[in-house]
Structures are given as C-alpha cells and as structure tokens.
C-alpha cells in the first residue's frame, strides 16, 4: 500500500515553517506519521523540486497539464488519483486503503 502526495510549491518539504503555519499541513504531517505507523508507504513530491515524479504518474501529469497547478495537491493511492485540490482526511485514506 502506497500513498503519494503531489504537492504545490512550498517553502520546504513539509510546508510547516515560516511566520504563518498552515494548520492543514500540520494535520497532514500528523496523519502521515499515523499512516507510517500502520506500515503504509508514504511519499511526498513537490512540483518545484521533483517535477519528474509528476510526469511519471500519467493521471497526475494529465491533471496538471490540463488544469495547471490549481489541481494541487493531488493524492494518489496505489498509483491512482484519489483526490485533488485538497488533502484527504486520515479517515478517507484509511477507508480507501481498507485499513482500520
């Protein structure tokens, strides 16, 4: 089981820095830790630092090519796009993976 986050450009790999911290990114960081504790592989790619990862996933590449960066973030579960324009909740990801 693998979850990949295709992130928009951010200040760093987590986006959790600077004077105004985005609480959604803090929650995502907590959710990623919980996913990893359950043995789920999690990868994050930032378009400005790993553009080839966006191209390697055909669905993600097509979404970004046709709609631009407004579709980011995109979440893929086991290689298939699961959600775009916002991060899924932990519950949504676990349900999609069939994990409790």
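^ structure tokens above, recovered residues below v
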């Amino acid at each position: 089981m693998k979850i990949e986050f295709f992130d928009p450009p951010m200040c760093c790999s987590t986006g959790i820095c600077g004077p105004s911290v985005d609480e959604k990114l803090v929650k995502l960081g907590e959710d990623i830790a919980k996913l990893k504790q359950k043995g789920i592989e999690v990868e994050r790619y930032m378009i400005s630092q790993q553009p080839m990862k966006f191209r390697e996933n055909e669905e993600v590449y097509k979404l970004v090519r046709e709609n631009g960066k407004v579709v980011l973030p995109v979440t893929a579960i086991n290689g298939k796009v699961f959600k775009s324009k916002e991060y899924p909740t932990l519950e949504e990801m676990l349900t999609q993976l069939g994990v409790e």
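Helices lie at 23-37, 51-56, 58-67, 90-97.
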